[in-house]
């Protein structure tokens, strides 16, 4: 698993306001949206393309377009939905699938409670959206689900990551034989005893949508 922290002053600037406890939900949503677009630029660096012949008003030439099968963007419900528009703005021809994950509080296992995905993801590059890579359990289960469906290249876009989450995710993906990349705006210090990222930004879902 490769982890990429996007080092850019605009990313750090937007993230700073996003973290502030006084930032209200409308501002939080707008900043998260803008931040995802910046992260998506880095995350799609290896998106698959194919040559295409075009004619400009002056001359024929060759360019590129996204190749088939189209990339699939998968927000993890609920908080990942707040990242979808920012991603689709950059890659409007991608397709979108949905994955709902829930953690069983007894076993601590993350399982899928809802999915709307193509039946066969063979040969697909998949972009998973989830704002917080905290313990890593949800993301590991989501990636395994997508790989079982045939996804052959997975990039996760997260706003913030914790070192413990990255280590757990890497361990949770043992035996998974497809490239997995995590792109994040920052690697924070640690997780606290409640599983929150420190310093973090609090509960991303609540801050996006204003209700628990
Ligand atoms: N989920 C969140 O929304 N925030 C955290 O800090 C950790 C997990």
Automatic annotation (TrEMBL):
Binding, 5-phospho-alpha-D-ribose 1-diphosphate: 78, 103, 130-138, 203
Tree of life domain: Bacteria
Record-level GO cellular component terms: cytoplasm
Binding site for uracil: 197, 202-204
One biological process term in Gene Ontology: UMP salvage
Keyword Transferase found: yes
GO molecular function, one term: magnesium ion binding
This protein's pathway: Pyrimidine metabolism; UMP biosynthesis via salvage pathway; UMP from uracil: step 1/1
Catalyzed chemical reaction(s): UMP + diphosphate = 5-phospho-alpha-D-ribose 1-diphosphate + uracil
Regulation: Allosterically activated by GTP.
Cofactor note: Binds 1 Mg(2+) ion per subunit. The magnesium is bound as Mg-PRPP.
PANTHER family assigned to the protein according to its UniProt record, in alphabetical order: ADENINE PHOSPHORIBOSYLTRANSFERASE, URACIL PHOSPHORIBOSYLTRANSFERASE, CHLOROPLASTIC
Family: Belongs to the UPRTase family.
HAMAP family: Upp_B
Free-text function comment from the UniProt entry: Catalyzes the conversion of uracil and 5-phospho-alpha-D-ribose 1-diphosphate (PRPP) to UMP and diphosphate.
UniProt protein name: Uracil phosphoribosyltransferase
Gene: upp
């Amino acid at each position: 698993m490769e982890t990429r922290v996007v080092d850019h002053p605009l990313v750090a600037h937007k993230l700073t306001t996003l973290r502030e406890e006084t930032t209200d939900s409308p501002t939080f949503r707008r900043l998260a949206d803008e931040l995802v677009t910046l992260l998506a630029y880095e995350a799609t660096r290896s998106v698959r393309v194919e040559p295409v012949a075009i004619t400009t008003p002056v001359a024929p030439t060759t360019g590129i377009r996204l190749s088939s099968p189209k990339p699939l963007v998968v927000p993890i419900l609920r908080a990942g939905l707040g990242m979808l528009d920012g991603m689709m703005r950059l890659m409007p021809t991608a397709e979108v699938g949905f994955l709902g994950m829930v953690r069983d509080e007894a076993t601590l296992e993350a399982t899928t409670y809802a999915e709307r995905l193509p039946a066969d993801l063979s040969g697909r590059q998949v972009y998973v959206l989830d704002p917080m890579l905290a313990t890593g359990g949800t993301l590991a289960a989501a990636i395994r689900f997508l790989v079982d469906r045939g996804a052959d290249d997975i990039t996760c876009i997260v706003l913030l990551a914790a070192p413990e989450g990255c280590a757990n995710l890497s361990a949770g993906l043992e035996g998974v034989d497809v490239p997995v990349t995590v792109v994040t705006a920052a690697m924070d210090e640690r997780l606290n005893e409640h599983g929150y990222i420190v310093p973090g930004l609090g509960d991303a879902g609540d801050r996006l949508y204003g209700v628990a």
